[in-house]
Amino acid sequence: MGGLVEWVIGWAQSPSGTLALFLIAFAESSFFPIPPDVLLIAMALLRPVESFFLALVCSAGSVFGGIFGYFLGWAGGRPLLHRVFSEDKISAVKRAFEKYEVWAIAVAGFTPIPYKVFTLSAGAFEIPFKPFALVSAASRSARFFLVGACIYLWGEPMKFFLEKYFNWLTLVFMALLVGGFAIVRYMVRRHAEKEAGGT
Question: Would you tell me how many other CB atoms lie within 10 Å of the CB of residue 156?
Answer without folding.
Answer: 8
